[in-house]
Design brief:
By secondary structure, the chain is mostly helical. Helices cover 43% and strands 0% of the residues. The relative contact order is 0.04. The longest helix is centred in the first third of the chain and has 17 residues. The chain has a domain of 51 residues. This is Testicular haploid expressed gene protein-like. Keywords: Repeat. InterPro entries: SPMAP2-like, THEG.
Length: 337
């Protein structure tokens, strides 16, 4: 990190790869892409979180800022003698454990023991690296020979198969709750439906007791016993209200007298036909009325098919002749003993 801080912005720092691991460069690139994909999927990519993840734009003041020596647009590689090794780069530089194991199987009989020892050391480092642990790389296991079963194991196996071959016993159906009211509650309703028997006590005759004789009413009781006196000063007219002389001398007009009489048509409708002069007389408007097509259509009687009376009441249908009675019908047809 301190290399990037101390370098100017125009110069790019290129870290050289060792010559021994250049052959593993394609594998390293694929592993890096896979790790970058895992890193991208492990976070929630919401706009708010991504905006907060960006660093603030403020200038850092490193301890030492060298002056850029390159004036042309040409990258300059800064090589430091005291450059620290990065653990992540070192672990990613190891080849894949699976490839090393396949390579070991191929050259097991060709290489000397000291070279195979170095190869085992590389396999151990690759398996114990952080990225092999994240990928859950497991060392190969030796294949164990499958031993044959003896008679006791076969008998146990056949016993298990017979048990599994039996038909499955279904579970009993769940009990359906009964919706009927229990008898205890019905007795309670029957008891509540009866009228309450109240014991009527005869009221004793009124007598003047000793406490009544010595009772003294309070001031509040005396105020409530007084009659209410209403204030007549707030009224617009004096009581009793006087009738004006113009109302006493008023004479009703002819129109007022006509309106005061009851409605003749309404009284005739309300009166019963027994009180009319001729209750069976038909009005002239009813004699002149002409019925519409719809009224004539509704006045005609509707024809119904009589399904109760048949032409031959003793005839038997062909379906009844071909019918076969059920055992329950035969049982019910027998006379009761």
């Amino acid at each position: 990190m301190w290399l990037k801080e101390s370098s100017p912005q125009c110069c790019e720092v290129h870290e050289k790869l060792p010559n021994g691991i250049k052959c593993f460069l394609p594998d390293l690139c694929t592993e890096l892409e896979y790790l970058q994909c895992l890193h991208g999927k492990s976070f929630i990519k919401s706009p708010r979180i991504m905006s907060l993840a960006k660093p603030k734009n403020f200038k850092r003041t490193p301890r030492y800022v060298p002056i850029c020596a390159c004036k042309l647009k040409k990258p300059v590689e800064l090589v430091h003698l005291d450059q620290r090794e990065n653990t992540r780069t070192e672990q990613l530089s190891y080849p894949k454990a699976r490839k090393l194991l396949v390579f070991k199987e191929e050259i097991k009989k060709r290489f000397p023991p000291d070279r195979i020892m170095n190869l085992n050391r590389l396999i151990r480092k690759s398996l114990l690296s952080l990225y092999s642990r994240l990928a859950n790389v497991q060392p190969p296991e030796e294949k164990q020979p499958i031993s044959k079963w003896d008679r006791a194991e076969w008998a146990r196996h056949l016993k298990r198969l017979r048990k599994l071959a039996r038909p499955k016993i279904p579970k009993p159906p769940p009990r359906i709750p009964n919706k009927r009211m229990p008898l205890k509650r019905m007795r309670r309703y029957k008891f509540l439906s009866k009228p309450i028997k109240r014991q009527v006590d005869d009221k004793p005759d009124w007598t003047l007791t000793y406490e009544m004789k010595k009772f003294k009413p309070s001031d509040r009781l005396k105020d409530l016993a007084k009659p209410m006196i209403r204030d007549t000063s707030m009224l617009y007219q004096d009581l009793p209200i006087k009738i004006p002389q113009t109302a006493l001398k008023y004479k009703a007009s002819k129109r007022t007298k006509d309106l005061s009489q009851p409605n003749a048509i309404r009284t005739t409708q309300l009166t019963s036909p027994e009180l009319r002069e001729n209750p069976f007389a038909i009005s002239p408007n009813a004699l002149k009325a002409k019925a519409s097509k719809r009224t004539i259509e509704l006045a005609e009687p509707k024809e119904y098919e009589n399904k109760h009376i048949r032409d031959n009441p003793f005839a038997i249908s062909p379906a009844a002749l071909k019918a076969k009675p059920k055992p329950r019908t035969i049982e019910l047809a027998k006379p009761k003993k």
